[in-house]
Write a structure and sequence with these properties.
The chain is mostly helical and about 100 residues long. Helices cover about 60% and strands about 0% of the residues. It is built from six helices and no strands.
Length: about 100
């Protein structure tokens, strides 16, 4: 039983962009101004936008990561997410 914390190099919202911009390479790979980019699509896709960082928004959005079939696509679209995942994989793989 371990708790593993993630601190993103870019904002955590950047990690979420590939979920919502699957076919838009420029948007899903952004590393700046990610919250504004995410808020452009969230109302239509999730019924909310993020004006205050509250856990309920991130819980709703991160559920998409549970679909492991798409997870690898999401990871490779975001460099800092890939770094985190690779590090996590190396730590878990060494157990």
């Amino acid at each position: 039983n371990q708790i593993i914390f993630a601190i993103s190099v870019d904002s955590i919202e950047c990690w979420l962009l590939p979920i919502y911009y699957e076919t838009d390479f420029k948007s899903k790979t952004k590393t700046e101004n990610c919250l504004n980019t995410l808020n452009k699509i969230l109302p239509a896709r999730e019924g909310f936008s993020i004006h205050k960082k509250e856990a309920k928004y991130y819980i709703a959005m991160s559920k998409h990561f549970l679909k492991s079939k798409k997870l690898q696509e999401y990871i490779t679209a975001q460099p800092s997410f890939k770094l985190f995942f690779d590090e996590l994989e190396s730590k878990i793989g060494n157990q």
